[in-house]
Amino acid sequence: MSDTTANTNTNNKNTVKWGDKEKSAWFAEQTIQRSYLEDVVARLDRLKDKFQIEQYGTLPCAPDNYPLFIVKPQEWDKQKPTILVTGGVHGYETSGVHGALSFLETEALNYAGQFNIVVAPCVSPWGYETINRWNPNAIDPNRSFKADSPAEESAALMKAVASLNTEIVAHIDLHETTDTDNTVFRPALAARDGIEQEQWNIPDGFYLVGDTENPVDDFQTSIIESVKKVTHIAPCDEDGKIIGEPITQEGVINYAKKKLGLCAGFTNSQYPTTTEVYPDSPKATDEDCVKAQVAAIKGGLDYLIEKT
User: What class is the 20-307 domain?
Assistant: First the structure.
């Protein structure tokens, strides 16, 4: 979903980092554009007879406080591997949130016999409501999954996952790459940090970001093959790259997840991946994007079932 919210001081030529005044001015410009309670919490309420829905924190942000929820199996089996699915780390990436919810509504119970599936469908509810990549303090939660995190959203999720006291075997983090990455986010990033940001080629289609240190190529392949049944895979550019990174196979690039403080890196899972859907594609609808996220989760779980 495109972010049309205005931003303060987003000229790439700006060479002075934002201070508190500029961050406050940016925050004052943000407006509520949709409802977390209606779109997310209400759907979770309807799942209470099928799963444990636990509040793991609250994000204070005037005039509202945002409750944070994690979904767990009704019966936890220590003998089963645990899978973590996260959505809405970047609140503006709509299909990540709705893909996580749709998976819970349509598919999660089909895998309950094999896994303990844990889902945090909307990690950044303020970002969801205001259609923002950043949190209210102009911090990117998906660069903040590290010790002493400056982002409350990231810190709360890490604490909640640690409280499970179990190994996370696979972590599937649901994201989007949108046209507004170039028109809104990167100009805002340039202004905030006082560093010019080059625009990147927005790939038309679905792709994955694996972990440089732990690429688990076959796992990524299984997800790509599953998503192909729903929507198209992003082609690489003329240099064999996607968003500036070389592909390792069709539709897959790798990042150093832990070093960059990415969500899919903090769990130290054996099988990490980050999905990237392109909602602005003329070849895909919003429904296609949600289905692609669900297909990605299924592709990863089917691989793990087959492997064992």
Answer: alpha beta
